[in-house]
Amino acid sequence: MDIGVRIKKARLAAGISQVRLANLLGVTRSACSQWELSGGGTSPRGERLAEIARLLDISYEWLATGHSGGHDDSEVQNIFMTGSDERSGQRLTAQQRELLALFDRLSTSAQAALLKLLSGMADKPSTPNAGDGGKKR
Fold first, then answer.
1. Pair 54, 113 in one domain
2. Same domain for 46 and 106?
3. What pTM, to 2 d.p., does this model score?
4. For the chain, which terminal residue's Cβ has fewer other Cβ atoms within 10 angstroms, N or C?
């Protein structure tokens, strides 16, 4: 799948029209249309591509290359569209999808720091909070 198809699929999944995306980016609808032409259109580069990824809440890596986090293009698109990873049979909750979307918008160094923090928190035994009856949340 080429970059134009990925832009279109992500735009449609986000529920954004070409006109709306163009307005958000400060370009013409015609420019967005050209980007989405499979094989024959122009492709946005660099900062514009990063801005599209941010607006559509998708990873820059996936938008630019079709690959992200060890998944191929079709797997990433399926997870993005359905919230489900067929390989594991698990469906992501709304909270998990939100967490992944936020994580994906972080810089690489911020992602590493967050993973380190979360790993440390997950390794600690839970301690009861006052008023929660000692239940782990």
1. no
2. no
3. 0.51
4. C
Residues 72 and 108 in one domain: no
Listed residue (8, 105, 13, 110) closest to 51, CA to CA: 105
Q: Is residue 129 part of a domain?
A: no
The residue length of the chain stands at 137
pLDDT (tens digit, 9 = 90+) per residue, 36-89? Answer: 986 666 888 888 988 998 888 888 888 888 876 554 445 555 555 555 555 555
